[in-house]
Amino acid sequence: QVQLVESGGGLVQPGGSLRLSCAASGNIFSINSMAWYRQAPGKERELVAAMPRGFSTNYADSVKGRFTIDRDKAKNTLYLQMNSLKPEDTAVYYCRGDFALLGTYWGQGTQVTVSS
Question: Tell me, what's the pLDDT at 19?
Fold first, then answer.
């Protein structure tokens, strides 16, 4: 079993920044990929940024140049630095991990609200 716990969400004004964290715990042997998704009200969940093992990071076009995905391997923690936030970034942000021998796990989500 793997647990993914997100933190760092909140209310921020347009143009502001937030840094999300996703801490992974459990009997993790190897991580195939980790990613951030988001889901706005009335919309489908969408990929925001991903770090597949052995490949370059990739981003949704809507966040390129503003968001940065990063991982602290020693801490098994994934981060999402979000800068120049816009109201359309408002959503619940989810962490997803794909783990060798264990499968795919999701975090519980953290709310990000961008509003003045």
Answer: 98
Distance CA 56, CA 98 (A): 16
C-alpha closest to that of 105 among 24, 9, 7, 8: 24
Given a contact cutoff of 8 angstroms between Cβ atoms, the answer to whether 20 and 108 are in contact is: no
Return the percent helix, strand and coil in the chain, to nearest 5. 5, 55, 40
Q: Left if phi > 0, otherwise alpha if psi is -120 to 50, otherwise beta: which for 17?
A: beta
Handedness of CA 31, 55, 21, 112 (dihedral sign): negative
Non-local (6+) Cβ contacts of 62 within 8 A are: 88
Strand order across the 2-7 sheet: 2-7, 18-26, 77-82, 67-72
pLDDT in tens, 5-64: 999 999 999 999 999 999 998 888 788 999 999 999 999 999 999 998 878 899 999 999
Q: How many whole angstroms separate alpha carbon 102 and alpha carbon 116?
A: 42
User: Looking at residue 44, what is its pLDDT?
Assistant: 97
